[in-house]
Each structure stands twice: as C-alpha cells, then as structure tokens.
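I have been asked to look over a protein record a colleague put together. What it holds is a sequence and that sequence's fold in token form. Please read both lines and tell me whether the tokens look consistent with the sequence. I do not need a full report, just your reasoning and any doubts. This is what I was given:
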Amino acid sequence: MAPEAGYLRRMPKDSTPEPTDIEAAAGWLASFDAALAAGDTATAASLFHADGHWRDVLALTWHIETMDGRQAIADRLAAVAETAGPTDFRLAEGRTPPRRVTRAGTECLEALIQFTAKVGVGAGALRLTPGDDGTLKAWTLSTTLEDLHDHKVRLSEARAGGDAFKREWGGDNWLDIREQARAYADRDPVVLVVGGGQAGLAMAARLTHLGVDTLIVDANPRIGDNWRRRYHSLVLHNEVYVNHMPFMKFPPTWPTYIPKDLLANWFEAYVEALELNYWTSTRLQSGSYDDAAGCWTVTLERDGGEVRTMRPRHIIMATGVSAIPIVPDDLPGLTDFAGTVMHSGSYTDGQAWKGARALVLGTGNSGHDVAQDLEASGADVTMIQRASTHIVSLAEAQKPYGLYFEGPPMEDCDILAASFPFPVLKRGYQVLTQASKEVDRDLHEGLAQRGFKLNDGVDDCGFQMSYMQRGGGYYFDVGCSGLIADGRIGLMQYDDIESFTAEGLRMNDGTTKAADLLVLATGFKNMQDTTRVLLGDAVADRVGPVWGFGDDGELRNMFKRTAQAGLWYISGSLAQCRIYSRYMALQIKACEEGLLALTRT
C-alpha cells in the first residue's frame, strides 16, 4: 500500500518505467531462472559481473550472508540450489517497477523481484549495470525469505470466527482471554524476550502473529520507560517516515522528529493493539540451557519479590546496545572529586544544575545533547574530548535514508534496504560522507578553529558505520556545535588533563578548573557483556562478540542463530528492528516447525 497523500516530506518522483528497462530486468530473471531450473549454476553465476554480489537472507541458505565475486556465487549456488529449490524468478507483482537509480555512486537499473522456494515465498532486489560488451549483468542480487508456505502471519481474515475469538454468551470475552494469556498461570512461553523497547516489541509482534507464544519482560515499571526515563529534551535524530513499527504505522500527523515521551506512550498503545504479552518490573535473574530438553530454565523476579521459574525454548536478548553504562576506571584522581558524578544514561534534566560548573566527558550524541541541555538551563559547561568525533548536520544525517523519500512505499523500501551487500553499503556511505562534508564545511571549520578534533567516521563511512561498528563516536548537530564554535560551551582535550581533584581538574600546565558536576558520556558495553551478567560467562563466551561487522560483512550474532542453541539477539534503530524482526521471527518459527536446526551448521 502506498503512503497516504502528503505523508512523505518530499513528493514522490515520477517512476514510470521504460519498456526496455522492464524487458531487460525480466529477461535477466528469466535467464537466471532457466539456468537454475537446469541445474546449471555456473551459467546462473555467469549472469553476474566478475565482482558482483549476491546477498541471501534465509531464502536459499537459511543464513544471512553475502557472496562476493562470480566464483563465490557459483560455488554457493551449487551447494544450496537443489535443496532450496528456488524457482519462478520474475519481476515483483504489485510493487515498484524497474527504474534507473544511483546507488553508492553507480548508476544502475534496479528491480524488485519475487520467486518461490521450497520453504516459502521470496522477494529481493536486482541491480543491473552494463558489462564491457554492453550486456546488462547483475551488480547485486538479494534473495530474502518473506513468508513460510504453511505458516503465514495471522491476519484478520484468518482469525475471524476462530475459537479463541468467537462470542461466548455468558463466557469469557476478549479481555478475559487476554488476561489469561499474559498471566502464564498454567504454561511457559515458547519465546522469552528480554527487553521491551522497539526491538523487543517488534519481535513479539512478529512472533505472536505467527502463532508463537511470546512473553516480553522488562525491568522498567511502565511500558515505554526505556525512552520515557531518558533525558528531558530527547528527540529522535532520524525522521518519522523511516521509523514505523511492524503492522502499525505512526499517524501521519506526527512531528518529523519524534519526542521521546510520544514514542514511549505509543509503545504502550502498541502492546495493547498488537495483543502482546508483556510483564513490567520483571528482571531476568539467571538462565541455563538444557541441551537434552532443548529449552532454557530461567529465573524471573517480579515486582514485590515474586520469583517465577520458566522454561522457554528460546531467549531473545533485546536489551539494546545501551544497557550497561561504561564507567572508565582509568580516570586519574576521580575518586577524589567532591562533586557529583553521573553517567549520561542517568542524566534527566539540567534545571537542577542552573549556575553550576559542569564537565561533560565524551563528545558523541549523548555528550553533546547533555552539554546543550545544561547550557540552556544556565550551567557553565565544558566538554572534554577524548577522541576525534564525526560531526554531521541533522539534515545531512538523513541522507542515508534517502531511498525512503524516492516515492516507493515503505514495504518496498524495506526490501531495498535489506538488499545491500557490505561492500556496496560501505562504498555508499563513503560517497555520502564526502558529499555531506562539503555541505557541512563551515560547521567543521568553526569547530576546528576551537580545537575540536574531527574524523570521517569508521572507514571514512560517516556515522552509519561508526554506529554499526562502535555504537557511537558521532554527533548529529542540532545546535551544540554552534555553541562550541561560539565559545558558549567550553572545550578541552582529555590529554591536557593531569588528574581530577576534589575541586575539579588539574591540567598538565598546572592550572586548575573547578567543577560541581561531571557527566560521563562514555558509552555502553557490548550486548555480550549483558549476556555475561544475565546468563553467565560460558554462554557469553560461546556466543562471542555481539554487534559490529564480522569478517563475513554481517553484524555479528544479530538477527540470526548463534553458537548457543535457543539464544538470539536483536537491536538497532526502529527501522532495523522493523526490517530484521521479520527475518528473525521466520527463523524461530521454522525452528518450531522442524524446518531449521537451532544452531548454525
């Protein structure tokens, strides 16, 4: 379904396809389909450029992986094509038609596709560019599993008249059934989701409506508190059009940048509207996996001290990349500081610090936002920079989401967003970063004149790769950079500090700086560390690092099976969670139906 009129901030482009483009894309797909049908995977691979890419999201491999280069594509197709049984590759019906676009600085013919595999229905994206002889060959191809054949999402028509929802005169109504379902008085959930933010909600929504009994537990006393309890001035830094949740889009009346409390309140409504089972004020105390029984034994502590033991077959860690604050233990003299020390994760409002002398250690998004809030509240603020930081204006920070403003509906954009192999994704970010630097030249020059150290992000890829590799190290400028450039917020380099003292700081040159408050905007630990705390060292070590790109060009242990049976991870932006919750839910459903092993082989 196309977005409502006026919903996008930019008018859709004219996407009327050229007949020759339709013929070219359809012809490539027909040749690819014919080669696979004949078992000739070498010929299928020959339709790619020598340095082409194939990204598969479950459809043929049951993994999330990318094959780079014609030979790797041929080898992988040979290994999986017969078992996966992909067939009927064609242009996607009812979706955006083929069109000429520029991706990662390369002009190409881009087409949305569909196909059928033995386990389900597939979709994807094909990008064609001319070869040396002028023949169009595949630069990239993605194949994603969208639905399982016999286990589809339960939509309204599938539920109408069902036993659980028919009228029972004098018996249980819908509310009675809902209260019984979320009480778990006589059963255990199949899936336990730890964490009730956007990741946990997206997963529970997908699984619940695939018929997988799912319970969310969250330590906060109210649904949405993971956003509601953050600092007073927090507003999301990317635009509303990209951020919708599964099954339930935000209203078209919402502000472009979503305030935290509006989002938090929406989460409460989302849980009710999507009929999700959610326990607030509940902590996972411990958990162990029984290989013989194929399930976990977990201990949950609820509000008031009630302890409940459950045996779910799956645990989804949806605790986010900001669950455990990093408090550096190498800050000399910090224990002598007589002022207040807090982590940015605990910071709420600058009004209490009016007239105070404040230091903010760290120059990422949180550090800048805290500093700006303190300055606006009347505090005397100085930021301490420990490492160079990538700075991008808020408008330029929206450019990586540009395909969502090109006209196609969100559902088509999500397929496109999941289609980019790592090398293309990386090159695209580099192109965008260089372009944004030109736009932000004055901003950067003003900061540099104050001694602020800048970088172009991890691998010169701007904020996106910094986020996906480090979880931070960048700032979307919403005004703080101007305050630094104007001197209204002070700046010092960490290397110029000798030590903290009772009064504040002693510098290497012997001067001192008094302070009443130190805010540590020093980031958060890896989700592997959260696993270590909740499930123990053995499980955490077995899984390994979580988040950040691995050697295979995919986020490590995210959205897929791990080395620990029955343990899954999801995190990221609202858009990431919306997109990849679909694929993770399909894997869990496939495990429950005996279509897929619990651990990757």
